[in-house]
């Protein structure tokens, strides 16, 4: 490459050979600490429902199962995750009193093997009382919409208007002004590698978490506060390689706290 003209020029990649030879180091390649348990998560089939009853005792009687963690445990052992919004929200990494989206964690099973953990999910008894659900942001803004958090009575947790420069003057000077309503559909990044978390809580109450996480520094203090730990007692390690992220892996931090 000459004269520093990089734009529009082919650039030879240097990182591919190691990956093509199977020498990548992803979260699944990292050795887990001794006696690490496998975990499976029971998730909500409802978009909005109260948890009327949850009984984990049958799962605890199954072979290999070492423990079941539910919302009441999260509330007693940890703090809500910090949410940057004027309306305070008690956001836990697992449902406490009701579920607010399909797939929200309801219970976590730890067992000696992945198969035992997944089989134990079927033994957990949960009674849901379904509530009205909302499928669009516009409907959620209505005064008649059911509030996800009844204590605050609104689904609007933050309302901001960002202005840069003299916007009104810019429109007045414009030769043409086009008005319209634009809706961005639901999307989801889908990297080949899914979330992966390994957590080790040491006897001295220090925690090391390995995760394919895209925000280890920006959200470190949020996780420490949720775990009721001083920041120096929480160490977050990201593997050398991540199998795709596209931004979605910054949202893994609630699962890091949950583990």
Describe what you observe in this structure:
The protein has 259 residues and is an alpha+beta fold. Among the domains are: 31-133, Alpha-Beta Complex (Aldehyde Oxidoreductase, domain 3); 186-259, 2-Layer Sandwich (Aldehyde Oxidoreductase, domain 4). The chain has 8 helices and 9 strands. It has helices spanning 16-20, 57-60, 71-77, 114-121, 137-140, 167-173, 220-226, 253-258; strands at residues 38-43, 49-55, 65-70, 98-99, 105-111, 125-130, 197-201, 207-211, 234-237. The longest helix is centred in the middle third of the chain and has 8 residues, at 114-121.
CATH superfamily of the domain at 31-133: Aldehyde oxidase/xanthine dehydrogenase, a/b hammerhead
Share of β-strand residues? 15-25%
What is the topology, as strand order, of the major beta sheet? Answer: 1-5-3
CATH class of the domain at 31-133: Alpha Beta
Count, helices: 8
Stretches where pLDDT is under 50 for at least 5 consecutive residues are none
Largest sheet, described in full?
3 strands, antiparallel
Rough outline? globular
The helix fraction, in percent, is 10-25%
Oligomer: single chain
Number of strands: 9
Class based on secondary structure composition and strand pairing: alpha+beta
Terminal CA distance: 48 Å
CA radius of gyration is 23 Å
Top keywords for this entry?
single chain; Aldehyde Oxidoreductase, domain 3; Aldehyde Oxidoreductase, domain 4; three-stranded antiparallel sheet; globular; 259 residues; 19% helix; alpha+beta; 8 helices
């Amino acid at each position: 490459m000459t004269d520093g003209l990089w734009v529009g020029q082919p650039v030879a990649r240097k990182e591919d050979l190691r990956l093509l030879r199977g020498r990548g180091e992803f979260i699944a390649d990292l050795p887990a600490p001794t006696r690490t348990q496998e975990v499976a998560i029971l998730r909500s089939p409802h978009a909005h429902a109260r948890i009327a009853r949850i009984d984990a005792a049958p799962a605890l009687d199954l072979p290999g199962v070492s423990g079941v963690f539910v919302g009441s445990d999260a509330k007693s052992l940890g703090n809500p995750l910090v949410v940057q919004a004027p309306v305070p929200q008690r956001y836990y990494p697992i449902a406490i009193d009701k579920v607010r989206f399909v797939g929200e964690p309801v219970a976590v099973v730890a067992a000696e093997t992945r198969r035992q953990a997944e089989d134990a999910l079927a033994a957990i008894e949960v009674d849901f009382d379904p509530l009205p659900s909302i499928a669009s942001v516009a409907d959620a803004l209505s005064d008649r919409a059911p509030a996800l958090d009844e204590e605050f009575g609104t689904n609007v947790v933050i309302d901001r208007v960002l202005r840069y420069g003299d916007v009104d003057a810019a429109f007045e000077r414009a030769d043409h002004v086009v008005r319209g309503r634009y809706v961005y559909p639901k999307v989801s990044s889908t990297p080949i590698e899914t979330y992966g978390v390994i957590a080790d809580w040491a006897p001295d109450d220090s925690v090391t978490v390995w995760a394919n996480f895209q925000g280890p520094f920006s959200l470190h203090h949020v996780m420490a506060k949720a775990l009721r730990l001083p920041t120096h007692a929480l160490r977050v390690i990201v593997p050398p390689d991540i199998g795709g992220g596209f931004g979605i892996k910054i949202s893994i931090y609630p699962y890091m706290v949950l583990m």
